[in-house]
Structure formats: C-alpha cells, structure tokens
Amino acid sequence: MLIDDERLNDTQTTTDPGPGTSRRVQAVLDADLPGPRISRHLYGHFAEHLGRCIYGGFWVGEDSDVPHEGGIRLDVVEALRALDIPNLRWPGGCFADTYHWRDGVGPRDQRPAMVNSHWGDVVEDNAFGTHEFMALCELLGTDPYVSANVGSGTVREAAEWIEYLTRSDDSPMARLRRENGRDEPWKVPFWGLGNEPWGCGGGMSSGAYAELARQYGTYSLDHGDNHLYRIAAGAADADYRWTEVLMQNLGRYLGAGRVSGHGANTYQAISFHHYTIVGENWDAKGSATEFDADEYYRTMVKATEIERIIAGHANVMDAYDPDKRVGLVLDEWGTWFDVEPGTNPGFLFQQNTMRDALVASVHFDAFHRHADRLVMANIAQTVNVLQAMLLTDGDALVLTPSYHVFAMNKGHHDAASLPLTVRGNGPSRTVGQDELPTFSASASTKDGQVLLSLTNLDADEPLDVEIDVRGAAAGTPVGRLLTAPEIAAHNTASATPVQVRPLDDVSLTDGTLRVTLPAHSFATVSFATRD
Ligand code: AHR
User: Fold this and answer.
1) What is the pLDDT of residues 434-468, one digit of tens each?
2) Residue 366 backbone dihedrals phi, psi, to 5 degrees
3) Buried b vs exposed e over 145-162: b needs ≥16 C-beta within 10 Å?
4) Which atom belonging to ligand 1 lies closest to the Cα atom of 348?
5) Could you read off the pLDDT of 264-311 as tens digits, one per residue?
6) Cα separation of 95 and 49, whole Å?
7) Which of 114, 134, 192, 461 might form a disulfide with 147, Cβ 3.0–4.6 angstroms?
8) Ligand 1 in reach of 195 Cβ (< 6 A)
C-alpha cells in the first residue's frame, strides 16, 4: 500500500440544502488590485512509468501504425500543446525511486529490463528513457521536471545524470550523451530529490530524509548556464511537521536560488502530495463513473480541503521564510477512484467525469488564491492514469472533462491574481458534519483582459451569479461553459457528451456581471478592461 489509510475519510453524509443554500450569489471583483502572479507552473503535469501512461499513452514505439514522431504519439502531443503545458514531471512517482537512468540510454535493443515492482509487477524494457523523455518535452514545448532516485539510487548516479543531461564540454557524461546521439546538452530547470520518502521512496523519517535531501541537493550541480530548481520531496497531505523539518534543514541562505557555494541552499522548494480520495477504505474508493449524490458531495468536501492544506504548509513556511523565497510545490494531486472493472489493479486506469472536472476547477481556485507561496502543481497523471487529461484507446484519443478545465483556465497562466470576494455566506450544502460551499470562483488579469473562473458545485440547482466589477471599465464579456446533463457524464472513443460550449447567460452592464451557471457546471468569463 502506498498511501496511509488516514487519507481516506468515510464521513457519513446527507446532502440536505445547507443554511446558505440559495439560487443566487453576489460577489465583488477588484479589477484594479492585482495580487501575486499565478505561475503557469500551477498547470503542470506528471507522467510516470505506470500502467498505460508512458507505454500506449505517450509512447507507441517506432514501429507503430499510430501516427508518431520517433515513437512518440502525435495526437497526444497535439492535444497537450493546445493546453500550453508548462512542465512535465517524470519518471515518477514511486517508480522514480526504483529507476536507474543508465538502463534507459543507448541502443534500445541493448537496454536492460527491470521489474516495475510498484505498478503491476510488470517487466519494464526501458524503451522510453532519458532521450525519449527529453524529445517528448521538446515536442510539447514544455519544461522537464526530472525526479532523481533517492530511495534506491546513489548520490553519484544522480549527479552523473545531471551531468549527462546538462553539460556541454567534453566531460565523461557529456561524451556518453554524444555517443548516444545527442550533441547539445538539454535544459533541465526542475530537479526532484526523490518522491514520497516517508513511503514508497524509502520509508524514512522526516529527519533522515532531510539529511539525504541536503546531501543529494549539494551534489545536484549547475553545469554551464543550466540552473536547477531543486525540489525536496515533501509531506503526505496535512503532515505539516514534515514541512517544518525540511524548512529547518534548508541551509544557510534561505531561498538563495541555487547552489553556488558552500552553505547555500541545497533545495529551493518543498513539495507535498494530496489526492481526492473518498470511500470506505483503500480497497473500496468508489467507482469513477457510478456514484450517487452523497458520494458526489463527499468528493467535493475532500476536494475543497486542498485550500486548508495548502494554507497549513504555507503557514509553517512563513514562520521560517516570511519573504516567501522557498517555493511550495504540489507535485501530485487529483482524484483516485477504483480502477475500471476488468483492468489491471496496478495500472490505476479510471474514467473521468464532470465530477473530476469540478474537482479540478475548485483546486485551481485554491491554487490561484495561494499563488504567493504555491509555485507549481502537477496533476496525476497526464494520460491513462488516475485523473487523466487524455485517454487512449488503441489509435483513438479521448479528451476528458478535466482536460477542458485546463484548457478553459489557460488565460490564468502567469496572470496577476485578482481579489474576488463572495458577499455573505454564499450557497452551501450540508454534507455529514461539513458545510460545503457550492460556489467557487477566482480571477486574474493579463494583457488588458480579465478572466474569471466560476464553478457551481450544486448537483441539481442552477445558480445566478452577480459580480460587482470595481476598478476598471469592462468590455463585452465572453463566456464558455462546461457541463452535461449528468454529473457522471464522461467521454469515450464513441461518444463525447462533455464538451465546451459558449455560455449564453452572461451580461455586463453598469459594472455588474450577471451569469447563470447550470447545475454542476464550470464556466469562464473574460472581458477587456479600459482605464
Ligand atoms: O500517482 C500514483 C502514485 O501516487 C505515485 O507513484 C506516488 O508518488 C503516489 O503515491
């Protein structure tokens, strides 16, 4: 088992209308009060050697009939390019701490195989390795985020991997890279120091891992003009103590940026993982597609917990680093349901419904509100695993509802966040012991455009939204809507009921934006501002 059962919460629920239930919500948008920049890296991705994410998802091999470039699926590349994905984390996950990079370079037919012990106990032939991953990043136009093997590797192995990837002169590793067909070094901006060291990454205590992170960080060198942003592997969920220990062990100069001398920081950021998991226990997390209203609302209660957890880690970091120079990274997040019937339990293949899309949209609202500390987030995972953007079925490609949320929110990349405040309590539902706010929203501005993201979590009731737009004259609003008749609606190779369409119910007159959100829907509204 990878994750502690404490992650699961079997709250008994009702889905009664809560005291704040109403079909109307009012809010204020301060368009002239730009806040922290929303890093595009909050829209990052994650590709692990797990199930059909790499093999069949990204990689079909050079002999495939599926259109590809050098073995990499072109339909997947095209779909992800449309999202402007900012970074891709690889090779794991738990797999990263079993991966030995030298097995994945050189002629493919001579690469040694290994057992993927975490994911299905299948034989991994190492056909997809460093060169293939870097070629994928180049095709996607995305930044690589490479996770080193701290759990079962060596410091030397990790140091040599960086040299292999990023060094330009005639060093031993640069020479080996050239022998394997790549002359120029690559750029690698993000470097992970292991993964879940408290669990699959080595079963360590926070103190033991902090020592290792300093050691690995020290030898994770910058070569030439490649500057690594080193990310220490962090907590499960709300384990704030883990974050505190890592902050205490950071090094002499908080947020110094890179290792350039003795005593400089050995890592520049700290990660944590948080999945949206509901269900009785780890072996009964519930179906991705068959769920009732109770289960839907319990999922949303779990999803909205992300805000409290980000704030918890951020508070700990603030105590040590009030200038916010150390980054917080959520490098795994998303829904985790039971696998689809008949599929390999170790492959974590699940369908993706409107419920997943709304889990994503409320996460992004929380990310935007914490953009001062949260610098990166990576959905788990990009293709065919957990809350995927894309599902492949032979040569067919399916865009999931979650994919559309990433697409609709693209305008937030590197935009300045804007304060959007709900008046009063806002609508809610009582879910067991919890009060679930059923309206979620965030806003940003970039290049003279304002973008609002608006979510109505109520499964049954539409919501009239009225927003007082202050501080700027606003142009004509353009709305886009993602919803479906059923909250469990999902896309397959033969039917795509969940699609983005224009949002007609939107107007902006005399500084008041009015939108009607259908039940269980996500919408974006954009408009130009004039002084
Ligand atoms: O994303 C699947 C797994 O979840 C990752 O390998 C691991 O880091 C986490 O437990």
Assistant:
1) 999 999 999 999 999 999 999 999 999 999 999 99
2) -65, -40
3) bbbbbbbebebeebbbbb
4) 2
5) 568 999 999 999 999 878 889 999 999 999 999 999 999 999 999 999
6) 6
7) 192
8) yes
CA distance 293 to 324: 40
The beta-strand segments (E) located in 269-363 are: 269-276, 327-335
pLDDT tens digits for range 227-258: 999 999 999 999 999 999 999 988 755 544 44
Q: Are the C-beta atoms of 325 and 375 separated by less than 8 Å?
A: no
What beta strand segments (E) does 264-326 contain?
269-276
> Is ligand 1 within 6 A of the CB of residue 238?
no
**Polymer length of the chain:** 531
**Is 5-37+417-530 CATH 2.60.260.20?**
no
What DSSP state is assigned to residue 497?
-
User: How many other CB atoms are there within 10 angstroms of residue 377's CB atom?
Assistant: 28
**What is the structure's pLDDT at 250?**
83
pTM across the whole model: 0.94
Q: How many CB atoms lie within 10 A of CB 195?
A: 29
Helix (H) or strand (E) holding 122: strand 122-124
C-alpha 497 to ligand 1 mean position (Å): 30
Q: Which homologous superfamily does the CATH classification assign to the domain defined by 38-414?
A: Glycosidases (3.20.20.80)
CB-based contact 163:223 (threshold 8 Å): yes
**What are the sequence ranges of the domains in the chain?**
5-37+417-530, 38-414
Beta-carbon contacts of residue 109 (< 8 Å; ≥ 6 apart): none
